[in-house]
Amino acid sequence: MRRTLILLALISSGLSTTYAQLISGPMLADVAMREATIWLQTETPAIVRVTYSPKDSDQKYWSYVVTTEPESANCAQITLDQIEPGTSYSYQIEIDGQLTAAGGNITSPQFFHGRTPPPDLRIAVGGAHYVNQSGFDPPYETLGAGYEIFSSIQAQSPELMLWLGNTAHLRQCDWNSKSGYLKRFSTARAQPETQSLLASTANYATWGDSDYSVHRAGKFYSFRKEAESSFRTFWPMPTQAPAFGGIATRFSRSDVDFFLLDTRSHRNDLPDSSKLPEILGREQVEWLRQELMHSTATFKVILAGAPILNPANNTENLSSAESEQTDLLQMLRNEKISGLFFISGGKYYGELTRLVHANSYNLYDLTVGPLTAKPAANNNNELNFFRMPGTSTFERQFAVIDFTGPEEDRQIEMRVLNTLGEELWSRTVKASQLEAIQ
């Protein structure tokens, strides 16, 4: 407390002091119409805040002061509460009373509802991210490469960057202590090539198998609390889904509602003979149903760290909990929900799955392969008979998805690009193709 008071006095008086170093970030996290979140990490405990100003204005705002602590790897999540819709801001980080050069730009979403047609929206989507670490990686094998992919993503000028899990890639030495989790997440976040993209593009994430623990661990995993708190430390969430634990969340942009599912916290795929396997859990499925029923967005995009529609018998697909997958799809048909589109991670190759329905519209699941982790050579071990021809990709990649068109003819244009930003394939799905039969 005494240190805090001294530093606050220095801040208010404008005197300089030695300040802690920024080792990761800043990262722009959730950006809403009237609020934004900035994440950062300092080398040692520090007192931090953010100053931000609307473009072409002399007005200056300050965030509240936040103290970074070793218990959370000296990370901070700072709320900017003077944001207004459809406005561009520049921001800078202050550490221990010293204004640094670190910062970026923020553009808040437009409040178009009932005023204008929905604005076009571009998002980028990436899968597994692996940062090499000497002394921990297997000998004679390089698991991470192609870090220039983040410059290629930024060159596409997306408004949002969505991370589909396996962002840290924990090893066996990491997942039996909170310190291990935090150290591995810190290493992954500090990769230099990611910093520019993080600073000026809103970032959202869910987790996958390698962000959690040992393969197939779920709700009964002994270190579940440590896994969840570590993920939350590095990935600010837009909101907490009520009534059940885990990291399921949602947010909105333009005429698109995004729902990020949690495929780890509620998983029980090793039940006894009296129960059926679960990956999402009943409470999360009911939360999703309620949210989808309330949504008036043209597109309802459901994201997960594991494929939802892939029918192959694999424990990293929702199909491994066959009854749960069947119930979920039947619920979507029964409720006649229009505009559904799935995006998934958890694979080391990419593909587009199309589930053909006789009594409803076709469902699509875009599975995005690894960003920087080692890609698979093939997908021969998965019999996905819903895979669309020409969409299998076996190299490092990212997807760019555009939601465009006049209000009466909106569409989803998806493009999958390689590390250099070269297009591998593209497809377009119109909103009119995603209309439920009433």
SSE blueprint:
Elements: H1 2-13, E1 22-31, E2 36-42, E3 47-54, E4 61-62, E5 66-67, E6 75-80, E7 88-95, E8 98-107, E9 121-126, H2 149-155, E10 160-164, H3 178-189, H4 195-200, E11 202-206, H5 224-234, E12 249-253, E13 256-260, H6 282-294, E14 299-304, H7 322-334, E15 340-344, E16 351-355, E17 363-367, E18 397-404, E19 411-418, E20 423-430
Parallel strand pairs: 9-10, 10-11, 13-14, 14-15, 15-17
Antiparallel strand pairs: 1-2, 2-6, 3-4, 3-5, 3-7, 7-8, 9-18, 12-13, 16-17, 18-19, 19-20
**Tally of contiguous helical segments:** 7
* Unreliably modeled segments: 1-17
Biggest sheet: strands side by side, in what order?
11-10-9-18-19-20
The structural class is: alpha+beta
> How would the global form be characterised?
globular
Give the helix proportion (percent range).
10-25%
Query: Main sheet?
Result: 6 strands, mixed
Proportion of beta-strand residues: 25-35%
Number of strands: 20
- In round numbers, the mean pLDDT is 94
Gyration radius over CA: 22 Å
Distance between the termini: 61 Å
Would you list the SSEs in sequence order as H and E?
A: HEEEEEEEEEHEHHEHEEHEHEEEEEE
Task: Explain what you see.
- The protein is an alpha+beta fold and 438 residues long.
- It is 17% helix and 28% strand.
- The chain has helices at residues 2-13, 149-155, 178-189, 195-200, 224-234, 282-294, 322-334, and strands spanning 22-31, 36-42, 47-54, 61-62, 66-67, 75-80, 88-95, 98-107, 121-126, 160-164, 202-206, 249-253, 256-260, 299-304, 340-344, 351-355, 363-367, 397-404, 411-418, 423-430.
- Helix 3 runs parallel beside helix 5.
- The longest helix is centred in the middle third of the chain and has 13 residues, at 282-294.
- It is globular.
